[in-house]
Design a protein that fits this description.
Elements: E1 8-13, H1 14-17, H2 23-30, E2 36-40, H3 45-54, E3 61-62, H4 68-78, E4 83-88, H5 91-99, E5 103-106, H6 107-114, H7 124-128
Parallel strand pairs: 1-2, 1-4, 2-3, 4-5
């Protein structure tokens, strides 16, 4: 995926991010060739926020407490880039993307094209060995 258009909005389904071993690295890499990068999920906002915080992901947008199709519609309206690409994990994700007039890419295909590693996510804290004594 390197070398693509910088005039692109890239949305990851939360479940797709959970299949990437280093979601923080993926977001940083995607920022090199995407204008906006964010997370879409039907889960409550705090679930997305907890995941992105744990993995030190700075997102440009997230879906909030609404359905994925409505979220994709809102993001597309708000971020007027030439391309809108949704990275997901299932045929249902593909149908949501198509209903919202987004391009769909499976997380496996995206990982292969961009040389991202699939696997259980490890947090930045786990990978660096840092621990916090002041955290509950």
């Amino acid at each position: 995926m390197n070398g693509g258009s910088g005039d692109m909005t890239l949305a990851f389904d939360l479940e797709a991010l959970k299949q990437l071993s280093r979601p923080d690295v993926v977001f940083n890499d995607a920022r090199q060739w995407s204008e906006y990068v964010g997370v879409i999920s039907e889960k409550p906002t705090y679930v997305v926020t907890n995941f992105t915080r744990k993995h030190r992901i700075r997102q440009d947008f997230f879906s909030g407490p609404r359905g994925r199709e409505e979220s994709l519609d809102n993001v597309k309206e708000q971020f007027g880039t030439d391309r809108h690409v949704y990275v997901g994990t299932s045929d249902d994700d593909k149908a949501v993307a198509e209903a919202s007039d987004w391009e769909y890419l499976s997380v496996e295909d995206a990982a292969e094209a961009a040389e991202w590693e699939l696997g259980e996510p490890e947090s930045e804290v786990e990978s660096s060995g840092d621990t916090r004594d002041d955290w509950p």
